[in-house]
TrEMBL record:
GO cellular component, one term: cytosol
Molecular function terms, GO-annotated: 3-oxoacyl-[acyl-carrier-protein] synthase activity
Entry keyword set: Transferase
GO biological process: fatty acid biosynthetic process
Name by which UniProt lists this protein: Cip15
Domain Beta-ketoacyl synthase-like N-terminal: 12-226
Organism listed in the record: Streptomyces viridosporus (strain ATCC 14672 / DSM 40746 / JCM 4963 / KCTC 9882 / NRRL B-12104 / FH 1290)
SUPFAM superfamilies: Thiolase-like
Length: 363
C-alpha cells in the first residue's frame, strides 16, 4: 500500500475547478451538487444504452476557439478547459500555477478510447495503412491531454499522466504530494479526466459483469496543490491533505482491502472517526460498489457524516470519479461552514482491483 500522511509538511489545496455534466466551471459544479440535480439526458447516437451524463453543449472548438483545436479530441478539450478555468479563477492561481515550477499530474484510464479506435480503423479501411491524419496520432497516446494542457498554459514543470481507473484522481493526488516533497515542483495542478464516447460505452458494456449501473458520465476536475505556507503565508487554503492510501485487492476481498486502506489512513493521519463530517464514495457498479458501501457504512456507523456520493447525479465518470468526489467535498465545505476544521473522506474501488481513500481537513 502507498500512504501520504506526511505530518507537518502536509500539502494543501488552494483552488479548484471542474468541467462536469453540471456545466463548465467551479460555480456550475457547486450549484449542481448543492441542488442534487440529475444530469441524465438522452443520446442521439447509437450505443449500448440511450442515456448518458455529458457536459451540456460542450464542443471543443466552440469552447476553446479554432486555433490549435482542429485535431483536438474530447478528453483533451475537457482537460484543457478545466485547467484554464482554474487558472482564470484568480490572479493568484495563474501566478503560482504556471511557469517553471508548475507541474501537472492528470489521472486517466486509457486517455481517449474513441481516438484510439478511430485512428486504428482509418489505418485498416484507408486505401493504404499509412493514409491516416498524422495530426490525430497524438490523441491515441494517453498523455495527450496533460501534454496539451501544459502547452496551452505554460506549465513547465514535471508533466505526468497516471492510469488508475476510478482511483486515478487519488493516484494523481498521491503523486502530487511526492513531487512537492521531493522538491521537483513548487505547485502541482492535479486532477483526472474522462470523456463520454460510443467507444467507451461499448467497452464498458462488454467488460462489465452485467450488473445494471448508472449512465456513463464525463468531465474533468482539477486542483491546485501547494506546500503549506503556514498561518502567515496568505494562502487561500481550502483543504489540507491529511492522507492518501492506495492498495490492491487480494483474493477477491474488496471489503478487506478497502478496510485496510481506511484503517491505515486513519492511523497515520491521527484522525478520529468522530471528526469525519462528509464522505464521497465512488459508487462503482456491481459487487465492488456494494462492498464499498458496506465498508463505509460499517466504519461510519453512528457518525453524522453527509453522503456526497455523486454517481446518481453525474453518472459513472470513470477515471474522473475520485477527482469529482474530492470536488464535492470542497463544494460542500464552501456551502456549509459548520464543517470547517472537520474531515472529508473519499473512497474508491474499481473492478480492476484498485482501492483507495483520502482524508482531507476542510477549511
Amino acid at each position: 500500500m502507498t500512504t501520504t500522511a506526511t505530518g507537518a509538511g502536509r500539502p494543501v489545496i488552494t483552488a479548484w475547478s471542474a468541467v462536469s455534466p453540471f456545466g463548465i466551471g467551479r460555480t456550475a459544479f457547486a450549484e449542481g451538487a448543492r441542488e442534487r440535480r440529475s444530469t441524465v439526458s438522452a443520446l442521439a447516437e447509437a450505443g449500448p444504452r440511450d442515456d448518458a451524463c455529458t457536459v451540456p453543449g460542450f464542443e471543443v472548438r466552440a469552447v476553446l476557439g479554432k486555433k490549435g483545436t482542429r485535431s483536438m479530441d474530447r478528453v483533451t478539450g475537457l482537460a484543457v478547459t478545466a485547467v484554464g478555468a482554474l487558472l482564470d479563477d484568480t490572479e493568484r492561481s495563474r501566478a503560482v500555477g504556471t511557469g517553471e515550477g508548475a507541474a501537472l499530474a492528470l489521472g486517466t484510464t486509457t486517455g481517449s478510447a474513441q481516438s484510439m479506435m478511430d485512428f486504428t480503423r482509418d489505418s485498416l479501411t484507408g486505401e493504404q495503412p499509412f493514409f491516416v491524419d498524422p495530426a490525430r496520432f497524438p490523441n491515441t497516446v494517453m498523455n495527450c491531454a496533460a501534454g496539451q494542457s501544459a502547452i496551452w498554459y505554460q506549465l513547465k514543470g514535471p508533466n505526468t499522466t497516471i492510469a488508475g481507473g476510478r482511483a486515478a484522481g487519488l493516484h494523481a493526488l498521491n503523486y502530487s504530494r511526492r513531487l512537492l516533497a521531493a522538491g521537483r515542483a513548487q505547485t502541482v495542478l492535479c486532477g483526472a479526466a474522462e470523456e463520454y464516447s460510443t467507444a467507451r460505452a461499448w467497452l464498458e458494456h462488454h467488460s462489465g459483469d452485467g450488473a445494471p449501473g448508472a449512465p456513463l458520465g464525463e468531465g474533468c476536475a482539477v486542483f491546485l496543490v501547494e506546500p503549506a505556507a503556514g498561518e502567515d503565508g496568505g494562502q487561500p487554503v481550502l483543504a489540507e491533505i491529511l492522507a492518501v492510501e492506495l492498495g490492491v485487492v487480494l483474493r477477491d476481498d474488496v471489503a478487506g482491502s478497502l478496510t485496510a486502506c481506511l484503517r491505515g489512513a486513519l492511523r497515520r493521519s491521527g484522525v478520529d472517526l468522530a471528526e469525519i463530517a462528509a464522505v464521497a464514495r465512488s459508487g462503482a457498479p456491481g459487487a465492488e460498489g456494494d462492498a464499498e458501501a458496506a465498508v463505509v457504512g460499517e466504519l461510519l456507523a453512528g457518525v453524522d457524516a453527509a453522503d456526497l456520493t455523486q454517481v446518481a447525479l453525474i453518472g459513472d465518470t470513470g477515471a474522473a470519479s475520485a477527482a469529482f468526489q474530492t470536488a464535492a467535498l470542497l463544494a460542500h465545505a464552501e456551502d456549509d461552514r459548520t464543517v470547517a476544521g472537520k474531515v472529508g473522506l473519499v473512497t474508491s474501488v474499481d473492478r480492476t482491483g484498485t482501492v483507495g481513500c483520502a482524508l482531507l481537513r476542510l477549511r
